[in-house]
Amino acid sequence: MKAIATAERRIDDSSQQWKELVYWHRRCAALPNFACNCVCTECIFLEIKFGCGRCGIIVREGYRCEEHSVITEDGYILRLQRIPNDGRSSRSGQKLPVLLQHGLLQSASDWVLNSRNHSLGFILADAGFDVWLSNVRGNVYSRRHVSFHPKSQEFWAFTIDQMANYDLPAIINFVLNETSAPSLHYAGHSQGTTIGFILFSERPTWSAAKVKTFHAFAPVVYLGNTKSALRHPMIEMVGGYEFMPSTRFMKWLGGKLCTGKTAFLCQNALFLFVGCDFLNFNMTRLPVYMAHTPSGTSVSNIMHFSQMIQKGEFKKFDYGSHENKKLYNQPESPTYNVGNMLVPVVLYWGGNDVFTVESDIMRLSKELKSTLSIHYYHDSDHVDFVWGTNMADGAYRRMLELELIIICLNLLAKYSKIRQLACAIILFIIYRLGSVLSIVVLSKQNGVKIWLRGLVYLLHVVVVFCFYSLSIIFVLVCSCHKGAVTQMEHFILKTDINRSSIVIFIAHYFVD
């Protein structure tokens, strides 16, 4: 509230609009369950005028935040935000890094724009993971280069090809070096999945050694059947090299148009590109989203997506036959083969998504050979996977449960028979996650012995008869540990993920 008062004093007395915004912020702060569901109290609207970037939102939600810079092989300076592991996951210091990669025209901020119970970045942090939020070249947080000025043509000569070949490997290596972890878990949304599919298919062995799982939210690979407004080839009309940058004017415009009676204009414009979902879209937070989106990219990058739409294929950027021969030694740009991927991938997609539609998702799933599971949300659109109110108990919960399986399988391969049995029971408790196929793939990847895999299968067979009794017994056994009950209650209250909270807590206890 002190920051609100400070900001209010800075607002000109003649500005009735800003006074009204502060008034609503006071209501949000006074009523935690109020419909607006505030995040970063002094920053939601006031950021448009005073700024609250990078770590501001994270710190004001009560989390620690670190900022890091990564220099790519071709000289781009990328900014990363980190919500550090505060010790919940392991008393022995073991870290579980998770890298979150934003989508097209977005930034790392989009993972933390909702309340702490609905933002994936905060949910993972509460679950004890070491959360890293990355920004690719050209967005609002990564507009620096060792040689090129951001106003130069050379700076903006990039597409998703360069993001995948330079940005993502540099970020992954940096995270692993900082955490001393052997591998990490990767989650991408929209463009974040695109660069993941490119890197993991072009460098399959390297990726499989460094990336444990790949969670693809609204995956963008094939766009031949897209219904988004982006399917119309209008990019040729755009001048310059930078596309939709994040500027003070854009933030002001978003705050001006996306509130009150004109808010529907912003909403409908957004729905033209990503799909319509009134049910899971929190209109009161629209100015928050628009203050951070768009975050900018290059015109060349948008042209690359336009080529993917027009050709219906997953290819490298087409420079024209003459330049293609110089770069690729062939007149046509090469095709990416996602079938080469070795990293286990989980697909999440929505029925209201007009950008990446069912036919294109099914084509992708057929070509992938390392798919663990596919999760469909019939009432979700493209941006619901970062902004939607239904994801905490949907896609995010599935992601947490799958990560729990991986933790348990690691224990099955390393620890005593008692702990192996305990983790097998955890797998049994969360059997609803998906098919036995997921367990098989992950078991083989983690080198679990045949008899242990057989035990998991057996537990699946008797699930109907033993579910409640085993879960109760297991929780009671865990509660014998001094302070475990209190810790569990605190953990569940803080994360609000219900069943997932309990089993994740148990898993973290056994990792120690």
- Category by helix and strand content: alpha/beta
CATH architecture of the largest domain: 3-Layer(aba) Sandwich
Assign the CATH class of the largest domain: Alpha Beta
Task: State the major sheet.
Answer: 9 strands, mixed
Q: Which fold does the CATH topology of the largest domain refer to?
A: Rossmann fold
Total count of strands: 11
Overall mean pLDDT: 74
Name the CATH superfamily classification of the largest domain: Alpha/Beta hydrolase fold, catalytic domain
Q: How many helical stretches? A: 22
**What would you report as the Rg, rounded to the nearest angstrom?**
23 Å
Number of domains: 3
The N- to C-terminal Cα distance equals: 39 Å
Strand content: 5-15%
Stretches where pLDDT falls below 50 for ≥5 residues?
1-51, 87-93, 431-441, 474-512
Helical content band: 40-55%
Gross morphology is globular
